[in-house]
Fold this protein.
Amino acid sequence: MKLRALLLLLPLTAAVQAQQPSQPPAVRSPEVSADRRVTFRMRAPNAAKVTVFCECLTSEPAMTKDADGVWSVTVGPLEPDIYEYHFTVDGVDNLDQRNPVVKYNSRPNLIESVLEVPGPAPLFYDVKSVPHGKVEIRYYPSKTTGTTRRAFVYTPPNYERGTNRLPVLYLLHGADGDETVWTQFGRANLILDNLIAERKAAPMVVVMPFAYAYPWHAGVAGEKQRADFEKDLLTDLIPFVQSNYRVNTDRDNRALAGLSMGGGLTLAIGPRHLDMFSRLAVFSSGGGQNPEKTFADVAANAKNVNGQLKLFWIGVGTEDGAMAGSKRMSEFLTASGIKHIFKTTPGAHTWIVWRKYLNEVAPQIFPATS
Amino acid sequence: MKLRALLLLLPLTAAVQAQQPSQPPAVRSPEVSADRRVTFRMRAPNAAKVTVFCECLTSEPAMTKDADGVWSVTVGPLEPDIYEYHFTVDGVDNLDQRNPVVKYNSRPNLIESVLEVPGPAPLFYDVKSVPHGKVEIRYYPSKTTGTTRRAFVYTPPNYERGTNRLPVLYLLHGADGDETVWTQFGRANLILDNLIAERKAAPMVVVMPFAYAYPWHAGVAGEKQRADFEKDLLTDLIPFVQSNYRVNTDRDNRALAGLSMGGGLTLAIGPRHLDMFSRLAVFSSGGGQNPEKTFADVAANAKNVNGQLKLFWIGVGTEDGAMAGSKRMSEFLTASGIKHIFKTTPGAHTWIVWRKYLNEVAPQIFPATS
């Protein structure tokens, strides 16, 4: 990284500065070949052992060192998708230093390098030649937390020029995520752009808040985190959105969805606020070890829940550790007479699944009206 | 990072999930004490040597290992500011694995951990209790590059509710940056929010594009990068902004500024497009080794330049490697009879300086009208 600083300091012409690479191009990583094999490389001349951990792999292969101290391994062919990975160098995790694309997280030690294996044509989460909406980085005042909070808000193509009010989906991240992740890694905006262009989903506003009331380093206990997030959502964020966006304000046009921890929040908040939400989607999240107790009030209210919810969708990957809990939750809902969709798909506890779930469920939440 | 995956898979209740830390809280880094001393820590039991490189320091101190294999060093007290740093473990650079805050870059090997040392009260780049504008993540079609490109666009508080047209500043990043960095690390939006609240700067739109025509991995040569970026800016982005934002479209209300490579672009583009820009600001960037030759056309047009430019501001830190080139450029402009402000300040080639420069120059670019 020091070479960068030196290069930037040189009094180069603007043209030369523009082309100046920051590092000698010796080590390229990850390198994706036309047949979708991937070579990972890492320069670590003094290391005794380097391995790669990738959600594209079922093992953690050791890399081998060449005469220049560059470790490498080739894997695949891989399915076109977006994968997280990192290297472990003598027991210490490290990003791929040759790859500028990282997945950010709101807590320590969870930043991962990103491997994108492109498809033969743009995939459902890729930029296509369609009208594009935008994502707004908004600040809103929270009476609940006493702070100014940030939310990412997707508005569909030509939002500024329209006049009709739109439905709105509140979309929550999982543990360790933040308000940026559904856009920057989940590509919610591009998924919606593509669904809307194909007339599969209605134009909608998607609000992606920070699904913790307080940052991790504040050390606030979980129940207060959850309760204050719920209060912020219901009494600070939703009113802010309704004051600042052209959205419908009735429950029929308001949905709540989330992944993992955000799915848990959706389960905890949604069925208890039928006056607020008409459509719920839960990705890769159960209702805890004892839903009979935790959700006794919801079960007792089954008739209302069925009458009010137009969609109650629960999805989980068959290789996901949350599979058992999700299945238990679905069985509890069935036993309680609460209508819902329980869908299992191939996949683990990963964004590979969550991007697909958003693509599948957004058209069910707010279908395109022809 | 594997512990994270395991924890997420456990079928916890939503409440427990919300509070579940991702890692045992054993190692805290960076730890900022009340007296603004900072302790860096890194767990690397097998390493022989670990050092820290921080722009807050003038040396690269070695860290010492405790019985648990955790390396640490305490430095400071430090001035309140935002600093970049990383660790070097047996010759391999690594982020601080306990710190979730990173500075992103568009090229490899340049991602850095971020240390924020807070002031006794919110600083000029902090969130204050003032009205907040927003930043829009926009996609626009570029005929120049044949691709869909992304720009970040700041709009001031209450932009949606206003009716008068606003001035617009095009603000460029440096080498290895991208369209996110002025917002995510430079805090341009918060700096503007605060300046507007204090009635120092006029409400303005700030457009922050990707200042390369093509991504680094495309391997496009520097002159084509520069020329195509200029064409994209002038013939794709500016028309897009004028079609999609409530901005004035005359040259009096259009400014161009940038840092380092973006300052070089400002120097190369601005004085040659007086029909487009009336105010220029150049941060930490010279005009190359032979401005007499490179800018001969601009010197020959000195009278027009003086007549048309309402601000031509060049700033550079006295410890910046770009100091000599900036000084040479200023001397050349003076010799050519071109009026400009040449300002030197303490500081090096760093965002510490560029945040301050934006704070200083934005009110000069578009002053608040009382």
Q: What stands out?
A: The CA atoms of residues 347 and 353 of chain A lie 6 Å apart. The first helix of chain A runs from residue 2 to 9. The first strand of chain A starts at residue 31 and ends at 32.
